[in-house]
Design brief:
Elements (H helix, E strand, L loop, with lengths): L11 H7 L12 E3 L2 E3 L11 H22 L5 E5 L1 H12 L6 E5 L17 E7 L9 H11 L3 E7 L7 H15 L5
Parallel strand pairs: 3-4, 4-5, 5-6
Antiparallel strand pairs: 1-2
Length: 186
């Protein structure tokens, strides 16, 4: 799932590189902020609209469930960047049974998401930039600890990067997918 200002095509090449031949679902965020697609609203200061976040997360869960039924696919791995990673972890929190895992690139955690569901064994990869100007440096370890407390199999990698993705993201993501799911793609 794309970040703010991108669309449903943005991460398709990344998905194809990470899991060649796999089915890909790629929704477009339905909220516009200054004409840019996002998955949920923020106020003028950038603060998340938590009611909208909950509503949009439920809508995304319904989309994933419908896609699974329509296309006869199993639970997908969430791959999200920035705003897409945020709605991705919202989906993990809201309806983890719909998913096989979560690969979250530059996710943010501006509020305490507890209570969290039992995520025993649920695989999560958090790829964060040490120099990310949008995500305070104390957030990724806190985020990993919260999901670890409820049993998730969390891997956190703090990369020498900012908010933009790097080649290292691809390397870590591919290695994680191989470790968790074995041979990726068909």
């Amino acid at each position: 799932m794309h970040g703010t200002g991108a669309d449903e095509n943005d991460l398709i090449p990344l998905g194809e590189m990470l899991s060649p031949g796999s089915a890909l679902l790629s929704p477009r965020g339905r909220v516009l902020e200054d004409g840019m697609p996002r998955f949920f609203m923020r106020d003028e200061t950038g603060r998340w609209d938590l009611d909208d976040f909950a509503t949009r997360t439920a809508e995304l869960a319904a989309f994933v469930a419908q896609a699974q039924e329509t296309y006869g696919i199993g639970p997908p791995v969430v791959l999200g960047f920035s705003n897409g990673a945020n709605i991705g972890w919202g989906l993990v929190r809201h309806e983890p049974s719909l998913l096989a895992g979560a690969l979250l690139l530059r996710a943010s955690l501006p509020f305490d998401p507890r209570p969290l569901p039992d995520l025993t064994g649920f695989p999560i990869l958090l790829l964060s930039g040490k120099n990310d100007p949008l995500v305070p440096s104390d957030r990724p370890p806190y985020f990993a600890a919260l999901f670890g407390e409820v049993g998730a199999d969390v891997t956190l990698e703090l990369l020498p990067a900012g908010h933009a993705l790097t080649r290292q993201d691809l390397v870590f993501a591919h290695a994680w997918l191989e470790r968790i799911f074995g041979s990726v793609g068909t």
